């Protein structure tokens, strides 16, 4: 009952936005809200089901965002011909070296182990760089202004969503193999580092996705507004409804996106609810609530943690791919931890950790607030400063700082929820 | 082969910058480790405490500059430092009262406190942006160089110049002074001893009549002072930018954990270890190698192991290696 009411309230907020601010902005909030809800579901799996504290969310989202570029952009054939074999060789060497080091670590003991591992890792690093550097130079030399990277496979962009999940799951697996089993706050710091590293790789490896030069014009799964505006059928229908064609086309495109995202979200929730109410879900909760007892009952805690961490990572990657598809461009510079890690955490905590519907509500609501707090802050500051003389330094400063209200509000929301309602808006049953 | 020039280049590009950076990290890591020792959680808001502290110091510095008060060749910020520490302490102690104390009374799990510190981080970040904006600010108004590269070249006749900026010397001198006072406080005073006792064994400390709230207040005061000093020194040495302080969180945590959480000596050692590895791995060794190697063997490439953007990867790899192979850190820390 409470869930229904809260979701009705959320829908009311969106309706209000649509009536006062226009349907275009309202649907914009809904679309990003749906994606945020998927991200919140991913974090909720890791934290709410298993109690794993992941502060590298931004890294998984960015990893997923790579997929639309790699899958749907047209390939740069010249770069493939010049650099791809060498690049493949370099990456194969890197994987081989790490694998060899792991084997040596398992097989040997004592000083021989240390020396052998050092020799393999250092020698391997230089071998890798010897192959890697010329490959990068060859790829980035091809038409650097417009391409300078390998490009993608030229496949439909929707295919990149599961691929984004797989990429992020791969990253999560590597992290989990090294960092799970550490204490909770060590895991937090380790994942914080991983997040930073993945983002800096995306920013600097221009051969992969052009780095900070950005990839724009990623193909869409839905028609372009311009195409709709010259489509006679669409124009006739818009005229029939009495809407002007420009508004009609933008709203229709956003509605199509919203439909796609909603399908993904509902499918995910259905799967997750099924999982949570199965013996597997009960086992996960048992492990979260008392690891020692669960271990004594013969449950393999670290392996289950690995499983849920990888699954949660995959959901985050899926959301990342969806977001890049919606934006139509990949801008690695925009991945900041405050926006993509800690904001997602506020969503999960506010919504109710451990409850999927809570995470979804938290995702939508916090995104709505994130968008709306800035204009509210502006009008608040306008009101506060209305008595001051124009041109005074304080007035200008206060008006400028309204933009920073967002972070302040999010912090206050997080602290208030943790203090007075630690189980969130929709508590776990 | 020209060893003298090699040594000068090494000192100029690696040793001096890494020492200054290491001192800044060590001060930051000391703050993290003290909070961990007493309150038993990893304070994610530490980077933003540094940023807030530095922002107040900058504001006070501007005030002093406007009044015409200065320290001559030294940056005015040093004079503003005590005021900045006092103001930041007020905010931090207020946060402890309003936020952390509730969870301490509840004996909440450390991970809850970490999440709470995330909320505090948001608020402090917002407050700092509110106070001073997001732009880069350079507030160093002292003499820039103690040794100028060109003067050094003229005086010694070497091909390589050696520049020693005054902020680097100030950083190291201040850090040494602060650490000396801190260790004197922890080892010689009654309050310091009760803090160490509390950190070693909480129950035993409570039984011997140590007031936990008092210990906590002192821990916050020390951590705030260290954070403000570290932040100001970092800002003097480079420039002040809110986001950079948030990113310092990772190397600082790495330093504290590598040294052993809860161990002050470890935090200092960890700070320098991280700083030297970061600078060493991201520095292009071409110049030094060119001087140090015999004629004809000069390298063609830059000899840079990783580009500067990957400096976080360095602290991260060290962190993971230590956690996997020696989880309590190089100097035996604690793990709750």
TrEMBL record, chain B:
<feature type="transmembrane region" description="Helical">
    <location>
        <begin position="6"/>
        <end position="39"/>
    </location>
</feature>
<dbReference type="GO" id="GO:1903806">
    <property type="term" value="P:L-isoleucine import across plasma membrane"/>
</dbReference>
<keyword id="KW-0029">Amino-acid transport</keyword>
<feature type="transmembrane region" description="Helical">
    <location>
        <begin position="305"/>
        <end position="325"/>
    </location>
</feature>
<keyword id="KW-0997">Cell inner membrane</keyword>
<protein>
    <submittedName>
        <fullName>Branched-chain amino acid ABC transporter permease</fullName>
    </submittedName>
</protein>
<keyword id="KW-1003">Cell membrane</keyword>
<keyword id="KW-0812">Transmembrane</keyword>
<keyword id="KW-0472">Membrane</keyword>
<dbReference type="GO" id="GO:0042941">
    <property type="term" value="P:D-alanine transmembrane transport"/>
</dbReference>
<dbReference type="GO" id="GO:0005886">
    <property type="term" value="C:plasma membrane"/>
</dbReference>
<dbReference type="GO" id="GO:0015190">
    <property type="term" value="F:L-leucine transmembrane transporter activity"/>
</dbReference>
<dbReference type="InterPro" id="IPR001851">
    <property type="entry name" value="ABC_transp_permease"/>
</dbReference>
<feature type="transmembrane region" description="Helical">
    <location>
        <begin position="77"/>
        <end position="99"/>
    </location>
</feature>
<keyword id="KW-0813">Transport</keyword>
<keyword id="KW-1133">Transmembrane helix</keyword>
<feature type="transmembrane region" description="Helical">
    <location>
        <begin position="215"/>
        <end position="236"/>
    </location>
</feature>
<dbReference type="InterPro" id="IPR052157">
    <property type="entry name" value="BCAA_transport_permease"/>
</dbReference>
<feature type="transmembrane region" description="Helical">
    <location>
        <begin position="51"/>
        <end position="71"/>
    </location>
</feature>
<dbReference type="GO" id="GO:0015192">
    <property type="term" value="F:L-phenylalanine transmembrane transporter activity"/>
</dbReference>
<comment type="similarity">
    <text>Belongs to the binding-protein-dependent transport system permease family. LivHM subfamily.</text>
</comment>
<feature type="transmembrane region" description="Helical">
    <location>
        <begin position="168"/>
        <end position="186"/>
    </location>
</feature>
<dbReference type="Pfam" id="PF02653">
    <property type="entry name" value="BPD_transp_2"/>
</dbReference>
<dbReference type="GO" id="GO:0015808">
    <property type="term" value="P:L-alanine transport"/>
</dbReference>
<dbReference type="GO" id="GO:0005304">
    <property type="term" value="F:L-valine transmembrane transporter activity"/>
</dbReference>
<feature type="transmembrane region" description="Helical">
    <location>
        <begin position="111"/>
        <end position="132"/>
    </location>
</feature>
<dbReference type="GO" id="GO:0015188">
    <property type="term" value="F:L-isoleucine transmembrane transporter activity"/>
</dbReference>
């Amino acid at each position: 009952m409470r869930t229904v009411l809260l979701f009705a309230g959320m829908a009311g907020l969106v309706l209000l936005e649509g009536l006062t601010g226009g349907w275009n902005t309202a649907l914009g909030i809904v679309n990003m809200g749906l994606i945020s809800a998927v991200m919140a579901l991913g974090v909720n799996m890791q934290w709410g089901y298993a109690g794993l504290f992941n502060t590298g969310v931004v890294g998984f989202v960015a990893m997923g965002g790579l997929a639309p570029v790699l899958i749907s952009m047209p390939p740069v054939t010249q770069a493939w011909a010049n650099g791809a074999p060498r690049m493949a060789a370099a990456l194969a060497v890197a994987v081989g070296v790490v694998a060899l080091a792991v084997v040596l670590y398992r097989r040997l003991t004592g000083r021989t182990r240390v020396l052998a591992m050092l020799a393999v890792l250092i020698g391997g690093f230089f071998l890798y760089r010897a192959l890697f550097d010329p490959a990068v130079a060859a790829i980035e030399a091809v038409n650097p202004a417009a391409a300078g990277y390998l490009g993608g496979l030229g496949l439909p962009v929707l295919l990149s969503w599961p691929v984004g999940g797989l990429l992020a799951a791969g990253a999560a697996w590597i992290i989990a193999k090294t960092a799970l089993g550490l204490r909770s706050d060590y895991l937090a710091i380790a994942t914080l580092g991983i997040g930073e590293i993945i983002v800096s790789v995306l920013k600097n490896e221009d051969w992969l996705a052009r780095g900070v030069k950005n990839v724009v014009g990623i193909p869409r799964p839905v028609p372009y507004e311009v195409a709709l505006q010259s489509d006679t059928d669409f124009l006739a229908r818009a005229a029939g409804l009495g809407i002007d064609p420009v508004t009609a086309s933008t709203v229709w495109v956003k509605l199509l996106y919203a439909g796609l995202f909603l399908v993904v979200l509902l499918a995910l929730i259905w799967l997750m609810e099924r999982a949570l109410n199965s013996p597997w879900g009960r086992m996960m909760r048992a492990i979260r609530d008392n690891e020692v007892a669960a271990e004594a009952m013969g449950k393999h805690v670290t392996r289950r943690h690995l499983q849920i961490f990888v699954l949660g990572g995959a959901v985050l990657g899926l959301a990342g791919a969806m977001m890049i598809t919606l934006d139509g461009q990949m801008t690695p510079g925009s991945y900041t931890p405050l926006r993509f890690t800690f904001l997602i955490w506020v969503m999960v905590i506010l919504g109710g950790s451990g409850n999927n519907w809570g995470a979804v509500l938290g995702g939508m609501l916090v995104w709505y607030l994130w968008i709306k707090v800035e204009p509210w802050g502006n009008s608040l500051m306008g009101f506060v400063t209305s008595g001051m003389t124009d041109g005074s330094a304080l007035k200008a400063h206060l008006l400028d700082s309204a933009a920073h209200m967002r972070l302040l509000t999010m912090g206050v929301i997080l602290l208030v929820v943790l203090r007075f309602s630690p189980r969130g808006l929709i508590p776990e049953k | 082969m020209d060893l003298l020039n090699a040594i000068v280049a090494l000192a100029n590009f690696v040793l001096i910058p890494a020492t200054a950076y290491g001192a800044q990290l060590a001060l930051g890591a000391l703050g993290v480790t003290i909070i961990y020792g007493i309150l038993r959680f990893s304070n994610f808001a530490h980077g933003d405490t540094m940023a807030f502290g530095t922002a107040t110091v900058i504001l006070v510095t501007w005030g002093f500059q406007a009044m015409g008060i200065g320290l001559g060749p030294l940056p005015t910020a040093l004079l503003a430092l005590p005021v900045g520490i006092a103001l930041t302490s007020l905010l931090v102690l207020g946060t402890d009262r309003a936020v952390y104390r509730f969870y301490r009374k509840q004996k909440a799990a450390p991970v809850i406190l970490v999440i709470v510190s995330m909320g505090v981080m948001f608020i402090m970040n917002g407050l700092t942006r509110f106070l001073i904006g997001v732009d880069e600010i350079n507030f160093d108004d002292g003499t820039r160089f103690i040794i100028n590269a060109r003067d050094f070249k003229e005086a010694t006749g070497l091909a390589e110049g050696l520049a020693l900026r005054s902020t680097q010397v100030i950083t190291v001198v201040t850090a040494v002074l602060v650490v000396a006072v801190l260790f004197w406080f922890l080892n010689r005073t009654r309050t310091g001893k009760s803090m160490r006792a509390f950190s070693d064994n909480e129950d035993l400390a409570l039984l011997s009549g140590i007031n936990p709230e008092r210990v906590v207040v002192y821990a916050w005061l020390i951590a705030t002072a260290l954070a403000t000093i570290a932040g100001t020194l970092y800002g003097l040495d480079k420039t002040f930018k809110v986001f950079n302080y948030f990113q310092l969180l990772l190397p600082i945590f790495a330093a504290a954990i590598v040294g052993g959480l809860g161990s002050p000596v470890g935090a200092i050692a960890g700070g320098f270890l991280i700083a030297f590895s970061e600078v060493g791995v991201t520095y292009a060794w071409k110049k030094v190698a060119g001087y140090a190697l015999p004629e004809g063997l000069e390298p063609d490439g830059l000899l840079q192991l990783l580009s500067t953007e990957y400096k976080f990867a360095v602290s991260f790899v060290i962190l993971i290696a230590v956690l996997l192979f020696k989880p309590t850190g190089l100097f035996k820390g604690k793990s709750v």
